[in-house]
User: Fold these one by one.
Assistant:
Number 1:
Amino acid sequence: MSRPFHLAVPAGDLKDSVHFYEKILECKLGNREEGKWIDVDFWGNELTLHKTNMKLPSERHEVDMGSVPVPHFGVHLEPKIFEKIKENLKKNNIEYLDQPYTRFKDKKEQQETFFIKDPHGNVLELKTFG
Protein backbone atom coordinates (compact mmCIF):
# COMPACT_ATOMS: atom_id res chain seq x y z
CA MET A 1 0.00 0.00 0.00
CA SER A 2 1.32 3.43 -0.87
CA ARG A 3 1.69 6.33 1.51
CA PRO A 4 0.37 9.84 0.83
CA PHE A 5 2.85 12.05 -0.95
CA HIS A 6 3.68 15.70 -0.18
CA LEU A 7 4.69 18.15 -2.88
CA ALA A 8 5.16 21.93 -2.56
CA VAL A 9 5.02 24.03 -5.74
CA PRO A 10 5.14 27.70 -6.65
CA ALA A 11 1.61 28.93 -7.28
CA GLY A 12 1.82 32.61 -8.14
CA ASP A 13 -1.41 34.33 -7.13
CA LEU A 14 -3.00 32.04 -4.53
CA LYS A 15 -6.52 33.23 -5.37
CA ASP A 16 -6.24 32.02 -8.97
CA SER A 17 -4.54 28.77 -7.99
CA VAL A 18 -7.01 28.01 -5.20
CA HIS A 19 -9.93 28.55 -7.59
CA PHE A 20 -8.40 26.15 -10.11
CA TYR A 21 -7.67 23.36 -7.62
CA GLU A 22 -10.89 23.76 -5.63
CA LYS A 23 -13.45 24.53 -8.34
CA ILE A 24 -12.04 22.97 -11.51
CA LEU A 25 -10.25 19.91 -10.11
CA GLU A 26 -12.67 19.70 -7.12
CA CYS A 27 -9.89 19.21 -4.55
CA LYS A 28 -10.49 20.02 -0.88
CA LEU A 29 -8.50 22.75 0.83
CA GLY A 30 -6.63 22.27 4.10
CA ASN A 31 -4.19 24.08 6.36
CA ARG A 32 -2.92 27.49 5.31
CA GLU A 33 -0.94 30.50 6.29
CA GLU A 34 -3.05 33.33 4.89
CA GLY A 35 -1.40 34.98 1.92
CA LYS A 36 1.62 32.64 1.97
CA TRP A 37 0.61 29.02 1.30
CA ILE A 38 -2.30 26.59 1.33
CA ASP A 39 -2.54 22.80 1.44
CA VAL A 40 -4.68 21.01 -1.12
CA ASP A 41 -5.95 17.45 -0.72
CA PHE A 42 -4.75 16.21 -4.12
CA TRP A 43 -6.73 12.95 -4.05
CA GLY A 44 -5.16 11.75 -0.81
CA ASN A 45 -1.83 13.49 -1.33
CA GLU A 46 -0.79 16.80 0.16
CA LEU A 47 -0.07 19.48 -2.42
CA THR A 48 1.11 22.77 -0.94
CA LEU A 49 0.67 25.86 -3.09
CA HIS A 50 3.12 28.65 -2.23
CA LYS A 51 2.56 32.27 -3.20
CA THR A 52 5.61 33.15 -5.27
CA ASN A 53 6.53 34.65 -8.61
CA MET A 54 9.08 31.90 -9.29
CA LYS A 55 8.14 29.40 -12.00
CA LEU A 56 9.48 25.92 -12.57
CA PRO A 57 11.48 25.43 -15.75
CA SER A 58 9.85 23.27 -18.39
CA GLU A 59 11.12 21.20 -21.29
CA ARG A 60 9.96 18.18 -23.24
CA HIS A 61 11.44 14.70 -23.03
CA GLU A 62 10.95 11.90 -25.53
CA VAL A 63 9.37 8.75 -24.07
CA ASP A 64 7.49 5.79 -25.55
CA MET A 65 4.32 7.84 -25.96
CA GLY A 66 5.98 10.88 -27.51
CA SER A 67 7.21 14.11 -26.04
CA VAL A 68 6.11 14.84 -22.46
CA PRO A 69 6.58 18.00 -20.40
CA VAL A 70 9.07 17.77 -17.52
CA PRO A 71 8.67 18.47 -14.70
CA HIS A 72 5.07 17.46 -14.16
CA PHE A 73 3.05 15.82 -11.40
CA GLY A 74 -0.28 14.10 -11.37
CA VAL A 75 -2.53 11.38 -10.12
CA HIS A 76 -4.37 8.22 -11.21
CA LEU A 77 -8.12 8.79 -10.95
CA GLU A 78 -11.21 6.63 -10.96
CA PRO A 79 -12.90 6.81 -14.39
CA LYS A 80 -15.94 8.78 -13.11
CA ILE A 81 -13.75 11.44 -11.49
CA PHE A 82 -11.50 11.58 -14.56
CA GLU A 83 -14.51 12.23 -16.82
CA LYS A 84 -15.90 14.85 -14.41
CA ILE A 85 -12.58 16.73 -14.46
CA LYS A 86 -12.63 16.68 -18.27
CA GLU A 87 -16.17 18.15 -18.17
CA ASN A 88 -15.03 20.87 -15.75
CA LEU A 89 -12.11 21.77 -18.01
CA LYS A 90 -14.44 22.07 -21.01
CA LYS A 91 -17.05 24.14 -19.10
CA ASN A 92 -14.33 26.54 -17.94
CA ASN A 93 -12.61 26.80 -21.34
CA ILE A 94 -9.35 25.41 -20.00
CA GLU A 95 -7.19 24.13 -22.82
CA TYR A 96 -5.24 20.92 -22.72
CA LEU A 97 -1.49 21.13 -22.98
CA ASP A 98 -1.67 17.60 -24.46
CA GLN A 99 -5.11 16.31 -25.49
CA PRO A 100 -6.47 13.12 -23.86
CA TYR A 101 -5.12 9.96 -25.48
CA THR A 102 -4.82 6.24 -24.76
CA ARG A 103 -1.46 4.80 -23.79
CA PHE A 104 -0.49 1.08 -23.75
CA LYS A 105 -3.58 0.20 -25.81
CA ASP A 106 -4.86 -3.39 -25.32
CA LYS A 107 -2.37 -4.08 -22.51
CA LYS A 108 -3.11 -4.46 -18.81
CA GLU A 109 -1.47 -1.04 -18.26
CA GLN A 110 -3.88 0.68 -20.70
CA GLN A 111 -4.67 4.20 -19.53
CA GLU A 112 -6.17 7.43 -20.76
CA THR A 113 -4.07 10.46 -19.92
CA PHE A 114 -3.86 14.19 -20.57
CA PHE A 115 -1.69 17.13 -19.55
CA ILE A 116 -2.88 20.57 -18.43
CA LYS A 117 -1.31 23.60 -16.80
CA ASP A 118 -2.51 25.22 -13.60
CA PRO A 119 -2.86 29.03 -13.54
CA HIS A 120 0.84 29.46 -12.62
CA GLY A 121 2.07 27.14 -15.38
CA ASN A 122 2.72 23.99 -13.34
CA VAL A 123 2.11 20.95 -15.54
CA LEU A 124 -0.26 18.21 -14.32
CA GLU A 125 -0.86 14.79 -15.81
CA LEU A 126 -4.19 13.20 -14.96
CA LYS A 127 -4.87 9.62 -15.96
CA THR A 128 -7.25 6.73 -15.50
CA PHE A 129 -6.81 3.01 -16.08
CA GLY A 130 -9.07 0.79 -18.12
Number 2:
Amino acid sequence: MSYDLRRLRAHGLITRTPGSHRYHLTDTGLHHAMLITHPHTRLIHPGLAQLTDPHPPEPTRLNTAARAHQHALDQLTQEAGLAA
Protein backbone atom coordinates (compact mmCIF):
# COMPACT_ATOMS: atom_id res chain seq x y z
CA MET A 1 0.00 0.00 0.00
CA SER A 2 2.88 2.36 0.67
CA TYR A 3 3.88 2.03 -3.00
CA ASP A 4 0.40 3.04 -4.15
CA LEU A 5 0.24 5.96 -1.74
CA ARG A 6 3.68 7.12 -2.84
CA ARG A 7 2.60 7.02 -6.50
CA LEU A 8 -0.61 8.94 -5.77
CA ARG A 9 1.38 11.56 -3.85
CA ALA A 10 3.96 11.80 -6.65
CA HIS A 11 1.19 12.54 -9.13
CA GLY A 12 -0.33 15.17 -6.85
CA LEU A 13 -3.60 13.31 -6.34
CA ILE A 14 -3.34 13.09 -2.55
CA THR A 15 -1.49 14.93 0.21
CA ARG A 16 -0.44 13.60 3.59
CA THR A 17 -1.66 15.28 6.74
CA PRO A 18 1.48 16.18 8.73
CA GLY A 19 1.98 14.17 11.91
CA SER A 20 -0.57 11.49 11.04
CA HIS A 21 -1.16 8.53 8.77
CA ARG A 22 -4.03 10.26 7.00
CA TYR A 23 -4.24 11.45 3.43
CA HIS A 24 -6.52 13.97 1.77
CA LEU A 25 -7.65 14.15 -1.80
CA THR A 26 -6.38 17.18 -3.72
CA ASP A 27 -8.47 19.16 -6.17
CA THR A 28 -6.57 17.46 -8.99
CA GLY A 29 -7.27 14.06 -7.42
CA LEU A 30 -10.97 14.86 -7.17
CA HIS A 31 -11.03 16.01 -10.78
CA HIS A 32 -9.36 12.79 -11.93
CA ALA A 33 -11.74 10.65 -9.85
CA MET A 34 -14.74 12.41 -11.36
CA LEU A 35 -13.26 12.06 -14.83
CA ILE A 36 -12.97 8.30 -14.35
CA THR A 37 -16.30 7.65 -12.62
CA HIS A 38 -18.49 9.77 -14.90
CA PRO A 39 -18.01 7.66 -18.05
CA HIS A 40 -18.26 4.51 -15.95
CA THR A 41 -21.62 5.61 -14.57
CA ARG A 42 -22.96 7.03 -17.83
CA LEU A 43 -21.63 4.45 -20.32
CA ILE A 44 -20.54 1.18 -18.78
CA HIS A 45 -23.45 0.63 -16.38
CA PRO A 46 -26.19 1.21 -19.00
CA GLY A 47 -24.22 -0.72 -21.64
CA LEU A 48 -23.78 -3.75 -19.42
CA ALA A 49 -27.44 -3.57 -18.45
CA GLN A 50 -28.38 -3.70 -22.15
CA LEU A 51 -26.05 -6.63 -22.80
CA THR A 52 -27.15 -8.69 -19.79
CA ASP A 53 -30.91 -8.14 -20.12
CA PRO A 54 -32.26 -11.55 -21.22
CA HIS A 55 -35.47 -10.09 -22.67
CA PRO A 56 -34.89 -6.51 -23.83
CA PRO A 57 -38.01 -4.63 -24.95
CA GLU A 58 -36.43 -3.95 -28.34
CA PRO A 59 -33.06 -4.71 -29.95
CA THR A 60 -30.43 -2.04 -29.38
CA ARG A 61 -27.38 -1.20 -31.48
CA LEU A 62 -25.17 -2.52 -28.70
CA ASN A 63 -27.00 -5.87 -28.55
CA THR A 64 -26.88 -6.19 -32.32
CA ALA A 65 -23.16 -5.45 -32.40
CA ALA A 66 -22.47 -7.88 -29.55
CA ARG A 67 -24.37 -10.66 -31.32
CA ALA A 68 -22.53 -9.97 -34.60
CA HIS A 69 -19.20 -10.04 -32.76
CA GLN A 70 -20.04 -13.35 -31.08
CA HIS A 71 -21.21 -14.82 -34.39
CA ALA A 72 -17.95 -13.77 -36.09
CA LEU A 73 -15.90 -15.35 -33.29
CA ASP A 74 -17.92 -18.55 -33.55
CA GLN A 75 -17.32 -18.69 -37.31
CA LEU A 76 -13.58 -18.15 -36.86
CA THR A 77 -13.48 -20.88 -34.24
CA GLN A 78 -15.25 -23.32 -36.56
CA GLU A 79 -13.03 -22.45 -39.51
CA ALA A 80 -9.92 -22.97 -37.40
CA GLY A 81 -11.25 -26.32 -36.21
CA LEU A 82 -11.13 -25.34 -32.55
CA ALA A 83 -13.61 -26.62 -30.01
CA ALA A 84 -16.06 -23.95 -28.98
